[in-house]
Amino acid sequence: MPPERTPPIIIPPAIPPSGPSESSAIIFIHGFGDDALGLESIVRQFQSAQKLPHMTWVLPNALENHDLASTAWYVPTRLSPYPPSRPELEDDEDEEGVMASIDYITSLVDDLVAQGVPEKRIIVGGFSQGHAMALLTGLVSKYSGRLGGLFGLSGYLPLSERISALRENAGLPKDVNDEVNVFLARGTGDRLVPKRHHRLCYERLFELGIKEEKTTIKEYENMGHVMSGAELRDLCAWLEKTLQ
């Protein structure tokens, strides 16, 4: 039997919006080995500070991967700070796992749209593997170009050389040409996702057609593979601006 997925944690707005057209939502995706509970306290901090009070938060859960003995959105690869000496030395990426997770995240967007949340008032973001899932959902799902924004914290872009082909498979134009807002952040002390992969991520986004003027890129001194208060304050300000 396939593993059962724990339902997402859904945190309603602290102050209900006046109507569906005024509603907004964030799908906030956890990282490898974590779960939705690991992000709930961050949302509660925002709400206790009266930040984003009209926001619905959706915190999805990855499946348990028994081979990895951990929750995972896909099977990760090694992330070296140095490029391989030969292309064939790159690890094979788990395209099947990535695409299955994109399908699940897309279904959560479907649910929000069915409830009347405008597509342009839905933001998808995440941490680490969640960063990867958020960006890829915004690039190769049917909601490419239709969402309000994407954010990625301490992550990278898997399948980067496959994105154009995956877009064509999905019936999307080969190149991205939309006004989506993007927020990317990392810590300079992150040893799990080296800076090289952060740079390759945003360079590839720009090659695909994500607009540089719509992209905010932040680095935080001495921050490791974690989320910091300064980073979350900047993210909150970006979310407020994106949804104003």
Automatic annotation (TrEMBL):
Cited function: Hydrolyzes fatty acids from S-acylated cysteine residues in proteins with a strong preference for palmitoylated G-alpha proteins over other acyl substrates. Mediates the deacylation of G-alpha proteins such as GPA1 in vivo, but has weak or no activity toward palmitoylated Ras proteins. Has weak lysophospholipase activity in vitro; however such activity may not exist in vivo.
Family of the protein in this entry: Belongs to the AB hydrolase superfamily. AB hydrolase 2 family.
Name of this chain's protein: Acyl-protein thioesterase 1
UniProt keyword annotation of Lipid metabolism present: yes
Signal peptide location: none
Cellular component annotations (GO), alphabetically ordered: cytoplasm
Species of the source: Cochliobolus carbonum (strain 26-R-13) (Maize leaf spot fungus)
Pfam family, one: Abhydrolase_2
Catalysed reactions listed for this entry: S-hexadecanoyl-L-cysteinyl-[protein] + H2O = L-cysteinyl-[protein] + hexadecanoate + H(+)
GO molecular function ontology, one term from the record: palmitoyl-(protein) hydrolase activity
EC number of the protein: 3.1.2.22
Domain Phospholipase/carboxylesterase/thioesterase: 19-242
Keywords, sorted A to Z: Fatty acid metabolism, Hydrolase, Lipid metabolism, Serine esterase
UniProt GO BP: fatty acid metabolic process
